[in-house]
């Protein structure tokens, strides 16, 4: 009977997780900032084209800007929270197995060739782990 490996610690603090989390956050935040900037640009462009008298620009644009700011203040923080949580989950899916692989390979390098590396079936590095375990079997002189 195989035991399940449940990783409950999502923020491991490992270098690889922090690197991928940063990469994910940057790749999510930059398009969000770009979209907000395009929204403001669109509003100002439409308002500038429709209004020709400068005195009325402030009277007509300020309420629109106020509404946009309220929408952004309500919508962006939950979106950032969702993006951060999703980034943590994605970085954990890569960093967790990598951390386990690193720990097990260190034990094997200390001379414990009977040690086998275990990861979940759904982990992306499963083919690498299987190849390493086959190599360890050959080094130990056993067959699977």
Provide structural commentary:
The protein has one domain (15-140). 6% of the residues are buried. It starts with 14 loop residues before the first helix and ends with a helix. It is built from three helices and no strands. 74% of the residues lie in helices and 0% in strands. It is rod-shaped and about 85 Å long. It has helices at 15-50, 54-109, 126-140. With 144 residues, the protein is mainly α.
State the gist of this model.
The chain has helices at residues 15-50, 54-109, 126-140. By secondary structure, the protein is mostly helical.
Index terms:
mainly alpha; 144 residues; 74% helix; single chain
What's the number of structural domains?
1
Strand content: under 5%
Rg, nearest Å:
26 Å
| Average pLDDT metric | 77
Approximately how much helix is present in the residues? over 70%
How would a textbook summarize the main sheet? none
Tally the helices: 3
- What is the number of beta strands? 0
**Coarse structural class:** mainly alpha
What form results from the Cα inertia axes? rod-shaped
The N- to C-terminal Cα distance equals 17 Å
Summarize the SSE layout with pairings:
Layout: H1 15-50, H2 54-109, H3 126-140
């Amino acid at each position: 009977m195989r035991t399940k490996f449940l990783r409950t610690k999502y923020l491991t603090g490992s270098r690889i997780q922090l690197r991928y989390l940063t990469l994910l956050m940057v790749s999510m935040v930059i398009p969000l900032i770009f979209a907000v900037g395009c929204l403001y640009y669109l509003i100002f462009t439409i308002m500038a084209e429709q209004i020709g008298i400068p005195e009325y620009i402030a009277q007509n644009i300020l309420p629109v800007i106020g509404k946009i700011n309220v929408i952004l203040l309500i919508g962006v923080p939950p979106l950032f929270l969702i993006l951060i949580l999703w980034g943590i989950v994605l970085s954990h899916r890569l960093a967790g197995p990598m951390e386990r692989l690193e720990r097990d390979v260190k034990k094997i390098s200390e001379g414990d060739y009977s040690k086998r590396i275990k990861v979940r079936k759904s982990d992306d590095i499963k083919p690498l782990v299987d190849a390493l375990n086959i190599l360890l079997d050959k080094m130990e002189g056993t067959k699977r």
